[in-house]
Amino acid sequence: MIEKSEIDEALRRYDSRKITVATLCSHSALQIFFGAKQEGFRTIGICKPETKKAYDSFPLGKPEEYLIVKSYDEILSDAFQEELLKRNAVIIPHGSFVEYVGAKNLEKKFFVPMFGNRKVLDWEGDRDKEMFWLKKAGIPLPKTFESPEDIDRLCVIKFHGAKGGKGFFLAESGEEFEEKMEEARKKFPEAELSKHFIQEYILGVRYYPHYFYSPILNRIELFSIDRRDESNIDGLHRIGATKDEIQSFGSYVVTGNLPVVVRESLLPKLFDIGGRVVKASLDLFAPGMIGPFCVESVCRDDLEFITFEVSARIVAGTNLYPLGSQYSCYLFEEPMSTGRRISREINLAIKDKRLADVIF
Ligand code: ATP
Question: Which atom of ligand 1 is nearest to the CA of 201?
Answer without folding.
Answer: 28
